[in-house]
Amino acid sequence: KNLQEDNLRAPVVCVLGHVDHGKTKILDKLRRTNVQEGEVGGITQQIGATNVPAHGVQRQTHMVKGFDMSNLNFPGLLIIDTPGHESFSNLRSRGSSLCDIAILVVDITQGLEPQTVESIDLLKKRKTPFVVALNKVDRVFEWESNPAKDIREVIKLQKEPAKNDFDRRTKEIIQALNEQGLNAALFWENPNPRSYVSLVPTSAISGDGMGNLIAMVCDLCQQRLNKRLMFSEELQCTVLEVKTIQGHGTTIDVILVNGRLREGDTIILAGTEGPIVTQIRSLLLPKPLKEIRVKGQYDEFKEIPAAQGVKIAARDLEKAIAGLNLQVAYHDDEVDLLKDDVDRE
Ligand code: GTP
Ligand code: NA
Ligand code: MG
């Protein structure tokens, strides 16, 4: 498989949870963007992707006690946003099938809801490691925010009423997770990270706990995914969206999980009228920390290694189908074989 032990790719992190529990807003806080406010009805309707380079992790986590960026041996994170609305089960399933690790977002004031449970079932089925973001902690009674501090510190500094409200809500959520067959604990009380899911209190509005959440995800990758994250030349690439972009014509947004793409590559993908065979005209990356599903500026590359969210411009993409794999033919005689593969998907 040509695994490269000292060359790890970015982990693919999927954000899952019930509608309006704060998935997109958490990513906005991390990116310093306002994607959520631009969504129709405040509802996410597509899978999103954001390339988070190491400096994006760094600037978010400096307040986290005991977290050392320099220990990280992967180049950043590729974060996938998913819709929580009940009608988008297919997109949650697709998102979770692409990821190495997940963040399950639970509104601390609402607890587990139907799509939280649906998300848990997806994660269990695929045995995906995950952390729970106990989001909207700023709504805890008389909560006092301090995003510049480690969340453990912020909790300690709360007055009695806030502490009691936080403890009560957290206990209820742990109980509800238990009922789903999961052991769970606040991350600093977690007796065994291999058998207990860690909860990280966050607020996407005030920023409380955001650093701890990102640090927790990185730690979990480091502890659990080292083998899985070894870069492999074997291409694993899924089409997310088909879109027309001014100056580039019809493009496809793809999640490149493994392998690499090069300008000029012959790609084969499913289309509504049969397999499409075309050459990559431009390989584009959204600017770091920008959501690929939002119009923006792109940097052009000759070659892009996994894992990243990539925009591809090429001819004949108008009839491309989202949600399926993309293949590359490295020799002319592979084209027919790969067309058959794509047809059978
Ligand atoms: P879908 O993608 O539609 O499933 O929703 P989502 O989970 O992405 O939630 P979204 O980011 O759209 O946030 C829903 C609402 O909750 C918005 O009005 C946010 O401003 C608000 N919100 C999100 N996070 C927080 C938080 O930490 N605290 C408070 N007070 N409000 C929040
Ligand atoms: Na929403
Ligand atoms: Mg959203």
User: Helical segment tally?
Assistant: 8
Structural class: alpha/beta
Main sheet: strands, sense, barrel: 7 strands, mixed
Q: Compounds present?
A: guanosine-5'-triphosphate, sodium ion, magnesium ion
For the largest beta sheet, what order do the strands appear in spatially?
3-4-2-5-6-8-7
Task: Output the helix-strand order.
Answer: EEHEHEHEHEHHEEHEEEEEEEEEEEH
Low-confidence residue ranges: none
- Approximate strand percentage: 25-35%
Work out the helicity level. 25-40%
Evaluate the radius of gyration: 20 Å
- SS elements, strand count: 19
How far is the N terminus from the C terminus? 22 Å
Tertiary shape: elongated
Mean pLDDT: 96
What does this molecule look like?
- Helix content is 26%, strand content 30%.
- The strands form five sheets. A seven-stranded mixed beta sheet has the order 3-4-2-5-6-8-7, with helices on both faces. A five-stranded antiparallel beta sheet has the order 10-11-18-15-16, with no helix packed on it. A three-stranded antiparallel beta sheet has the order 14-13-19, covered by helices on one side.
- It has eight helices and 19 strands.
- It has helices at 23-31, 54-61, 89-98, 114-126, 151-156, 160-179, 210-224, 335-344, and strands spanning 3-8, 12-17, 48-53, 76-81, 101-107, 130-135, 183-186, 196-201, 230-232, 236-245, 249-258, 260-262, 266-269, 276-279, 282-286, 298-301, 303-305, 308-313, 326-329.
- The two termini are 22 Å apart.
- Helix 3 runs parallel beside helix 4.
- It has 345 residues and is α/β, with parallel strands linked by helices.
- The model has no long low-confidence stretch (mean pLDDT 96).
- Strand 13 (266-269) and strand 14 form a beta hairpin.
- It binds guanosine-5'-triphosphate, sodium ion and magnesium ion (MG).
- Sodium ion (NA) binds next to loops.
